[in-house]
């Protein structure tokens, strides 16, 4: 992640809210500049274009959410692995512009930035999967079954993200309860296909 000046960091903090709420196309550089106490031409002293600003914001969003995931798994109580993250996803989505921006960008990427977004989001998911896999340590699960559980866990997170974006917190809660009940049953008996 590139190092930015304090003014550029402030612009990114404002821009993440704009991009999360409005998306790439509808976010206004003028509105971002005004909210940062700048004129639009001054914004270009920090970022060469809207794409450049979007990329800087995306880098920060991925970093913030990876840090959150790391903390979640590090502080997870004993029990079903991954529950801390999946069960806090709805609350995190409401409170974190970084997560709202990250998910909106992954689901609705601006065409010219799609490769950068895909790479960043896939890296985020890969780390989430790796942490879940590590959380399975100490269980007698063969490697093929572990891979299956990791894919299932990432599928649950993906499904929950879709509910948050399209349907809201109530639908997310219902989906979480249903999927997590089935997942807990499978983890309780890893030898049963």
TrEMBL record:
PANTHER family: HTH-TYPE TRANSCRIPTIONAL REGULATOR RUTR (PTHR30055), MYCOFACTOCIN BIOSYNTHESIS TRANSCRIPTIONAL REGULATOR MFTR-RELATED (PTHR30055:SF238). Residues 5-65 form the HTH tetR-type domain. It comes from Pseudomonas fontis. This is TetR/AcrR family transcriptional regulator. Residues 28-47 bind DNA. Keywords: DNA-binding, Transcription, Transcription regulation. Pfam families: TetR_N (PF00440). It comes from the Bacteria. Signal peptide: none annotated.
């Amino acid at each position: 992640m590139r190092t930015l000046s304090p003014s550029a960091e402030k612009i990114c903090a404002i821009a993440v809210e704009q991009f999360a709420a409005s998306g790439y196309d509808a976010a206004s550089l003028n509105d971002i500049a005004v909210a940062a106490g700048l004129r639009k031409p001054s914004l270009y002293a920090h970022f060469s274009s809207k794409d450049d600003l979007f990329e800087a914001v995306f880098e920060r969003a991925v970093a913030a959410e990876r840090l959150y995931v790391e903390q979640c798994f590090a502080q997870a109580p004993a029990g079903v692995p991954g529950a801390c993250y999946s069960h806090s996803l709805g609350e995190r989505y409401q409170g974190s512009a970084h997560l709202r921006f990250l998910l909106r960008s992954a689901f609705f990427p601006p065409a010219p930035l799609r490769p950068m977004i895909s790479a960043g989001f896939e890296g985020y998911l890969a780390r989430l999967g790796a942490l879940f896999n590590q959380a399975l340590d100490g269980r007698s699960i063969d490697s093929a079954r572990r891979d299956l559980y990791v894919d299932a866990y990432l599928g649950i997170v993906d499904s929950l993200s879709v509910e948050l974006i399209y349907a809201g917190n109530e639908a997310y809660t219902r989906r979480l309860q249903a999927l997590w009940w089935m997942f807990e049953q499978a983890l309780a008996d890893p030898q049963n296909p």
